[in-house]
Amino acid sequence: MSHTPGPWTLEELDDTPGFLIVGLDGQPVARVVRICFDLEKTRSWQPGVEADAHLIAAAPDMLCRLLEAIPLLEAGGWQLMADLCKNVVRRAGTDWDKMVAKAEGW
User: Fold this and answer.
1) All structural domains of the chain with their residue ranges
2) Is the pTM of this model over 0.85?
């Protein structure tokens, strides 16, 4: 399985509050819409929706850079730095290989 190639961009939706994430080919990748209803049933933005949309749109670029970084560090004799990067991921509660597999849909 592979994801839609990046970079991805954001466009504000016209028909509803939210964002459309668009792939390099101009095709939609996802919609980010998070609306909450209060007791009076009025619609409002839930905090963080724009930040979430930006994070999702940045995902292909971040994955690409991560996948490039470790082999480059290892090949350049920077094994200690490569291990440090993997340890940062591990401290966040996951394993490097599991994180990459999750991102790639495995």
Assistant:
1) 9-100
2) no
